[in-house]
## 1
Amino acid sequence: MEIKILEAAWILPITAPPIKNAGVLIAGAHIEAIAKSEKLPAILAGKNCVRHNYGQAIIVPGFINLHTHLEYTILQSLSVEGGLLAWLPRLMDVTAGWSQRDRLDSIQQGIKEVIAAGTTFIVDNSYDGASVRAIAQAGLRGLVGLELFGVDQSLSDRQWQRWQERLEKELEDQVVKQARKERRLDITVAPHAPYTVCPALWQQAQQWAKVNDQIVLTHLAESAAEKKWFDAAECELTQFLIEAFGRIDPDFGNSYKEKLIWKEGSKSPVEHLHKHGLLENNLLAAHAVHVNDQDIDLLKANTVAIAHCPRSNARLDCGRVPLGKLLKSGLRVGLGTDSKASNDDLDLLAEARFAINWHKEQEPALEMEPRQIIERLTIKAAACLNREHDLGSLAPGKLADIAVFALSEDKNWSESNDDPYDLLLQGRVKLQALFVNGAEIEVFN
Ligand SMILES: [Zn+2]
């Protein structure tokens, strides 16, 4: 088994205090030990190992991006004018004209960006599954949700059957098989949102996820319109659905009232999912912006996890997550960048900086220190995926998913600050190396 030792000025184990001038010992796919540099010779005596000394750098667990759509990476210039419900049809129009090559190029560019940001684990929502193979090939760790749509419950059996066929097709690929064998890759189901997937179809997805011990990915309570739609007879979301589903079913505009009958009787998207037994501890919900106290109680009682995407919410004019309340309730919350169609980049440290500034400005009492936000990119994000036992921190026995960030050469800056969490967050670090399962991944800078 290959043994590697990664040394640097700082090691941030996350679940233990930072260690100055130390090394991480990796044996195969796992971390074997962490020790101060002066103790390494004794630990390594007689062992044949590869030593990397990164000098003025910080070694951290690889970041976990809880919500992306890699396929939309090249859509950064897509107009967000008019907010989410005006933006979505634009996204559908542009991507409808894409070739498979266009989609793959976009995904590849996204993968380079998440790697450059020190991300080792991507949770990706995929329209057609193209990111599955790309993530496998890149050597990253990934959870890809094959998206599921369908509001007509009379078609749910057929739609579910079609989804399973898509899954089977992905599982046949040799590169995918290998990544699954290395336990780097999972494929799961992503019912798009409570307003685009009827309960009958979602329940089949939920059942499958339970049997297969998988996380279910969705978008939940992202816009005010979504909340209003469940609470009122009609609103602009109805128009959006007529337009969107009318593209595949020309009769949808005439029959939508009876097709959407399942939405009746709930005041909010959270309450709707709860009513149909769809809130569970394997649900990872992106956004959760429009949640009231009762919704938060329901999310907490059912231990749902939240992927918070603040820059996307701001750009699409969706509003601000009541973060103080979510955190106070004890809900599991991590960060996601969402796609570049609604964000500047796929950089989680930039996301974290924005989150701190935005929430502190609106909720000055909110406690959000550099250490706490870095935890949201690592151990707390792992907890959102029920993976805190083997990911999200640097400790013996954990998987060796590691990012090494070089500190700025300005020593006055790096040596005058004794808080490595703060150094990491300030935006003056650059990714130097990345490891997944102990294997080094090529870094694009
Ligand atoms: Zn999304």
## 2
Amino acid sequence: MRKKAYYLCRSQEARIIFKAGKSHDGYFDCAHLCAQTEQAIELFEDNFTSTAVAAFGFDNAPGHQKRAEDALSAQNMPKFPKLWKPGKCKMCNGVLPNGEPQDFYYADNHPTMPGLFKGMKAILEERGFKEEANLRAECPAFTCQDPRASCCCRWILFNQPDFIAQKLALFELVESHGHIAFFYPKFHCELNFIEQSWGAAKYHYHRLPLTHNEAQMERNVRASLDAVDLLKMRRYVYFIQLRTVVPTNSNSDL
Ligand SMILES: [Zn+2]
């Protein structure tokens, strides 16, 4: 297996040099982002007191919205017991109405169904939905709308508090360290200082002489990123705040 070429300098920065493409490092996905975020958290915690809380803002991109491999999800759940894993690992426990954990798998020493996924029917019965457990697995095209409707097993599970509370992998990671995670608004780069920082770095890069090999290109990339220093980033944040501040003492509806 090809060794990853990107690297992190943990004690100094959380920047990653990632060479995208099939024949290089692959494509930067949510797992890469989580790994980088973990490094950024460590860096923050190494440099600030234990009571300091960081706010991590991310672009609202589909690739950033993945759930953990073992996350709760009613999607694709079979109705009846089956040897089933939604991803590379078993689904984590749910929460019963009494607050107890609910294991979605039969024990490995179960006499007739060792290690099988219980299925939506049994999961609902254990939660007290005895009649609803006999509903069909899913409405046609899963077009259910009303959260209170008891129309199909999947929709009922989909609206269970523990399923609703399932967070994104990125948010779970940040919040597990006691910090705050948020997304910048979609399609509003004027409100996102990350985009402005990228724009400034790209502008700097285009003004540098043409490169003739990978080493020169990497050097220029680093120089362009370094050109967007902390002061510039703070300036972008400041101007965004100026744009979005709404006067609190105004009677205007605007
Ligand atoms: Zn339904």
## 3
Amino acid sequence: MGFIVAMKTLDSSRAGVGAQGVGVAQGAIDECIKFAKGRIQFGQPITSFQAIQHMLADMQTQTEAARSLVYAVARMMDNGAKDFSRASAMAKLFATDTAMRVTIDAVQVMGGSGYMKEYPVEKMMRDAKILQIYEGTNQVQRNVIALDMIREANKNK
Ligand SMILES: Cc1cc2nc3c(=O)[nH]c(=O)nc-3n(C[C@H](O)[C@H](O)[C@H](O)COP(=O)(O)OP(=O)(O)OC[C@H]3O[C@@H](n4cnc5c(N)ncnc54)[C@H](O)[C@@H]3O)c2cc1C
């Protein structure tokens, strides 16, 4: 019984780690756009460069997608769903992989300053890494998702 209780606890807590991922990603975006607006290179703010704009657009789009997955599993939990194991693993996997990608890009947008401890995004990048590891590594989330898909396919045979 202990193993089942532990697994069910992880189903709930993984959604929370997904929420941490969304928070870290959004925080990194907020910090880097604030910096980018004020950083002048070649006589203009770096936000006027399309290469920077496209990075910002991808970062925000990925973060919104992660936020939607986290809200979806939170709604399932609030509505008393019995089984949200796959949804929770998907939210944790996608939101924390997003946090990793977005924080790496936030450092890139800020250039050398992003790498320095004077700005918070280097810490956000390190924090994103542990989100991919604890509460079950993201490889394990993929196992959970795939096994649930296969279980469902076998049931519907
Ligand atoms: C800062 C921090 C805080 C933590 N807090 C907690 C906590 O509060 N409570 C708690 O219980 N634990 C906590 N942990 C432990 C954390 O949950 C584990 O580190 C994590 O589950 C990974 O286990 P491991 O370190 O033993 O890695 P391992 O299991 O040895 O994994 C090593 C690598 O092998 C891969 N791997 C392992 N098994 C498989 C598999 N079956 N299929 C595919 N790949 C696999 C992993 O994905 C990983 O890439 C914490 C860890 C850290 C660093």
## 4
Amino acid sequence: MDRADVIIFGGGMIGLALASALDSSGLSAIVVDPADPAPRSETAFDGRTSAVSSSSMRMLRTIGVADHFAESGCPILRIAVADGLEPGGLRFDAEDDEPLGWMHENRHLRTALQARAEAGPNTWLLWKSRVANVDRSEHGVVVALEDGRKLHAPLLVAADGRNSATREAAGIRVAHWRYRHQAIVSVLRHERTDPPLSLASR
Ligand SMILES: Cc1cc2nc3c(=O)[nH]c(=O)nc-3n(C[C@H](O)[C@H](O)[C@H](O)COP(=O)(O)OP(=O)(O)OC[C@H]3O[C@@H](n4cnc5c(N)ncnc54)[C@H](O)[C@@H]3O)c2cc1C
């Protein structure tokens, strides 16, 4: 396969979700990524979790990604925002039986996205493939891979991460600024299934 409706650079969460959404609409996509996907399902690769909003979750269900989840994830029933130990804060509660979102381990999200993309009849995943040249014209794009293959599509999507080289090459500028804050991201295991009432009501 050397021709598709869309060529996507990057088989991360964004690139694979887009490929699956296109496939669900009957559009074809070729995903090019220099990485080896094998280690991505391991905890050591990315031990983080993602908060998937209820609308994103509806999208993942609609495009068939949720069918590949190893587990259903943890529903977000309440979000409490606190400023240190100051009284007050913000609180959001789920309504109408629909959670505010779902917590999913990134490795499960990545595995499900990849399984869905692999199952797509209109999707081709080219892992461990490096781009040698991109030739953009009025009528589309021709991508030359380092192994000599040439790919054609009317549209190229850059989903190659926050430091996207494709975005830079296209001259698309981004604004950066520093928050001058530091954050600690960690994974905690609860002793109990439900939080104590005093913590839950904060
Ligand atoms: C601490 C932290 C917590 C977060 N929590 C949340 C959360 O709770 N909920 C949420 O929605 N989001 C969260 N995010 C954001 C979310 O993780 C990112 O937005 C998302 O992972 C970005 O995915 P991506 O596919 O754009 O990029 P990446 O995951 O970086 O994937 C980019 C892909 O492009 C490939 N690539 C690189 N260069 C090239 C190239 N030249 N050609 C082709 N392919 C290339 C890479 O190999 C990689 O596979 C969090 C982020 C952080 C840092």
